[in-house]
Design goal:
9 helices, 31% helix, alpha/beta, nine-stranded mixed beta sheet
Length: 246
Amino acid sequence: MDHSADASGLLEGSDIGSQKDRVVTEEEWLQKWEMGNIGFHKEQGHPLLKKYLDVLLNGRSGLRIFFPLCGKAVEMKWLADMGHSVVGVEVSEEAVKEFFSDHSLPYCEEPVPEISGAKMFQSTSGNISLYCCSIYDLSSSIVGKFDGVWDRGALVAVNPCDRQRYASLMINLVEKNSSYLLVTVSYDPNKHKGPPFYVPESEIKSLFGNCCEIKCLEKVDDFSERHRQWGLDYFLEVLYLLKFVA
């Protein structure tokens, strides 16, 4: 683990390798869901959210919490069951429908008038609303603003050339005093083309540093056989708290 931490430190501030020009199309993401190639999905939920849930909620109840590029994240159900209102966005209708079926949740679907071709799937209880469209089609006039964000598998899945656009959108979607938990990954970007993409801390600061306080909460050794097959020798998950101050 010490070696892993040292290795990731050496990369901080360095080039992200050939990844900066890498583009994954919407069709490729849809195909991953159709083929069941979703190794990024965590059936048991993410341990870092469980551990730092109090940091996200900050003693508040009845929050609006946003899940960008949500897939069928089980944490959406957890937070809704705690009394929060959850909004997600996901390009794959397959993923959205699987979320509701996995949890035996009845839902209704309706078009989103402001976005051509988009659909909104809402639990009949009303506390989970998932938009099926490109995240870049969303705006605060459509989905409102949020008190908290759980960003795991989102920023790291965005094409590197789109990160500034993504960050600008996220900044516009959060309320002042909101808490944004961001999970990135750290590995040698010259050994794996991504996604998930390597996002160094220097880039987090560049993207978000002008409007929030950034704190690295934890680095976790998440190396597995899957990563070894990618040709990697270390793989870390890095959790940040972005605190948007009034």
